[in-house]
Write a structure and sequence with these properties.
Elements: E1 7-18, E2 21-32, E3 36-40, H1 47-54, E4 62-67, E5 70-71, H2 77-83, E6 84-87, H3 99-109, H4 115-125, H5 141-152, E7 159-163, H6 171-186, E8 190-195, H7 198-204, E9 207-212, E10 215-220, H8 222-229, E11 231-237, H9 242-249, E12 255-261, E13 264-269, H10 273-286, E14 289-295, H11 299-305
Parallel strand pairs: 3-8, 3-9, 6-7, 7-8
Antiparallel strand pairs: 1-2, 1-4, 4-5, 9-10, 11-13, 11-14, 12-13
């Protein structure tokens, strides 16, 4: 795999073994500079493992990762860590310190010139300027996540890596965090986002890399992923008509799967909009329908299509 032009991150045949467990199995992908790329996959897919390799926290069994052209390893580790900001799953803040004190401590560790000015800039960036003097154990979950993002940005990294950044926060806080990440992308920061949320990947990512059992099973735009997974048509009918309707619909154009429900059928069709319309039209001709719905697949259904 050659170096992608303008690649901020390149993973080339990365494999990681933990005894008999194969956590990563020949993972290849590239992250263009200035893009937001999502790492999507079920728990245990390898998302955290590959981010640990990118950060230099874990040496791969085979293969290599480069960050802005530097091979991740002992030789370039200091340079690479100055290029990267990391938002882990755990907030790991000093609860007895204020928001400002947490950031000031991080800025001091990085040797930031004028740390107080940088801290105030970051507090304003993540919307915490009015809570700067408050102890961290008194901040809400969403505020704490925003503070962790600010801490990861204290040294102005070119690459920001986030591992489940909105895990455990409410809907309003999620959207606030999304807004901050969009602003960073618009400012030229490259973002690698490991997430289990399809809506998060769709809202933020230019591309998504889907991992399953340590292997890349899809790499494309969120729209490509959803289109590849097709759509679902849910048809409500009388229980007596369910079996007859299921058998007839299974033979329709573009139908991949028909599942019988107590009061209707669920039909998985190809991404072609005409296939969903054809199923609804055929169902209405075969039975009296109580209702119908079409919808895109959820994340679990997408993973199932990629098996």
């Amino acid at each position: 795999m050659g170096q992608a032009p303008g690649a901020a991150v390149r993973a080339d045949s990365v494999t990681c073994h933990f005894g008999k467990l194969v956590a990563l199995d020949g993972v290849c992908f590239a992250v263009p500079a200035g893009a937001v790329v999502g790492l999507l996959g079920p728990n245990g897919a390898g998302k955290t493992t590959i981010t640990d390799v990118i950060c230099g926290l874990l040496a791969p069994t085979a293969g290599e990762v480069t960050v802005f052209g530097h091979e991740v390893g002992r030789r370039h580790l200091r340079e690479i860590r100055r290029l990267i900001g990391v938002v882990p799953q755990e907030t790991a803040l000093y609860d007895e310190l204020s928001a400002r004190e947490n950031l000031h401590f991080a800025a001091t560790l990085y040797g930031i010139a004028s740390p107080l000015r940088r801290v105030d800039e970051l507090l304003a960036l993540v919307g915490l300027a009015t809570r700067a003097g408050e102890r961290c154990d008194r901040l809400s979950g969403g505020m704490r996540r925003r503070l962790v993002i600010a801490r990861a940005l204290v040294h102005a990294p070119r690459l920001l890596i986030l591992d489940e950044p909105t895990l455990g926060v409410d809907v309003e806080a999620r959207h606030e965090i999304w807004g901050h990440l969009r602003a960073l992308r618009d400012g030229g920061t490259t973002v690698v986002l490991a997430t289990n949320y399809l809506d998060e990947a769709t809202a933020l990512c230019d591309r998504v890399v889907v991992l399953r059992s340590g292997r890349v099973v899809a790499d494309g735009t969120p729209g490509d992923l959803v289109s590849r997974a097709g759509r679902y048509v849910e048809v409500d009918c009388h229980p007596a008509d369910v079996q007859r309707l299921a058998e007839a619909l299974y033979r329709r154009r573009g139908v991949r799967l028909v599942e019988e429900e107590p009061s209707g059928v669920r039909v998985h069709v190809s991404g072609d909009d005409g296939a969903a319309e054809d199923v609804v039209t055929a169902a209405a001709a075969l039975a009296a329908l109580a209702g119908f719905r079409t919808r895109p697949p959820d994340l679990a259904e997408i993973f199932r299509t990629l098996e």
